[in-house]
From TrEMBL:
GO molecular function, one term: ribosomal small subunit binding
Alphabetically ordered keywords of this record: Translation regulation
UniProt-recorded name of the protein: Sigma 54 modulation/S30EA ribosomal protein C-terminal domain-containing protein
Pfam families: Ribosomal_S30AE (PF02482)
CDD domains: RaiA (cd00552)
GO biological process terms, semicolon-separated: negative regulation of translational elongation
InterPro entries, per the entry: HPF/YfiA_ribosome-assoc (IPR050574), RHF-like (IPR036567), RHF/RaiA (IPR003489)
Listed GO CC annotations: cytosolic small ribosomal subunit
Amino acid sequence: MKIIFKGKHIEVTDAMRNYIEKRLNKIERHFDHILEVIVTLSVEKNRQIVEATLQASRALIRAEEETDDMYTSIDKVADKLERQIQKYKKKYFQKPHPGTEKIGLANKEINIREF
């Protein structure tokens, strides 16, 4: 997983980078098809804003959060991404895969002809 850090009106420190990487690695344990994550940190007056765009193999997931503390914003964005990935994973893996219905119908036709 490639992580790209961007800062608007703020310098992204090594401590912030390490904290974000630690939080995103927890997400990667749930879903290993993540290709790239773009994290944008910005400051506007008293608001600390974190935006994250996650590029997976078949999905683009985005989360944004703003609070008074940058680390709280990072935590909330990571939680949002985790919830969205779990939702995507649930939806993706519950879909019937192509070809499975045809096999089932072919077996039923054979059983009907045998009787």
